[in-house]
Each structure stands twice: as C-alpha cells, then as structure tokens.
Amino acid sequence: MASWVPIVVIIFAVVLVIGPVMWLKPSSRERQLADLRQKAASAGLKVQIQTLPEALGEGTAATYFSQWRNPRRLNTGWGLEVQRMSHEMHFQGPWDWRKRRPAPEAAQPALKELIGALPADVTAVYANDSGLGVQWRERSGDDGLVKIQEALAAQRPVIEEAIRQPSRSEPGEA
C-alpha cells in the first residue's frame, strides 16, 4: 500500500501543473474567432469589441471597421441597429436609427444596399471616427466575413462621399 503513495503524489502533481495550462488553452471557437479577426485585419479592416444594441440585450460583439479614405468633414456619429421586430416606422425592416440620429439623406440609399448585402447575424452599422463599421456576431464564419468585406468595399466609398459636409469655400454654402 505504501508503494502507491508516491505514484498518487506524482499523478496529483502532474494534474496540478497540466490543469491550469489546459484551462488557458483557447477553445476551438476562440481559435476560429481569432482567425476571422486576423483575416479581417489582413484585409485592412479594424476590429473592435462593442456592446450589443439595447434591443438585443446585454453582451458584446465584434465591429469590423473599414476606415475612411479622407476623414475630414464627415457627418458621423450615427448608426443603424437591429430592433426586436420589424416595423413600418423603422428605416428598413428591423433596422432603425441609433438614438434617433439618422445618417444624411444622401447616404440612405447606399445604406439600404449595404444592409441588404450583409449576413443575417449582423446587429448594427456605425459611422464614427474609426470608419464605417459593421457589428457582427461572427456566427456565419468565413462566408459572413467575405460578405462584409464585399459590402463595405462597395458601399463605404459611396457612403463616405454622401456624408461629406461641404467646405465653407464651396458654392451654395451661406
């Protein structure tokens, strides 16, 4: 019986060393998210973690930003968020303005095209100093990332010019 005690102690010591190391090892989901975010960064997108829209409850999701080419004089600070239900008073279907602050009228057709091209697990579209961002739950994986990249590449330049405020020297400005 006494010959088993050292073996049990050694096994216990190994478990004490390996256990925390295995606990720190990323899960397959965490590895998949890191891979998606690395692909996005390689494609020129900036990834930030932000809180979900209020209508979707608590939690966070990654927001993929396509940076503005010329960030001067842009009317930013607005966003579109998915609401709990679709309503005719919303901007489009379940999409409505964050804090009731709409984008400039000239950008709205391009925004409708943008949200129509995005994967179903997108929760918001934001325009801020970081660029035009798409908040995404990342459930649609690589296919969703491709859709986001294509949609942002097509619509970000159009939206950027549509939200540009005229300079004081341009005609028509009082």
TrEMBL record:
Keywords: Membrane, Transmembrane, Transmembrane helix. The chain crosses the membrane at residues 6-24. It comes from the Bacteria. This is Preprotein translocase subunit YajC.
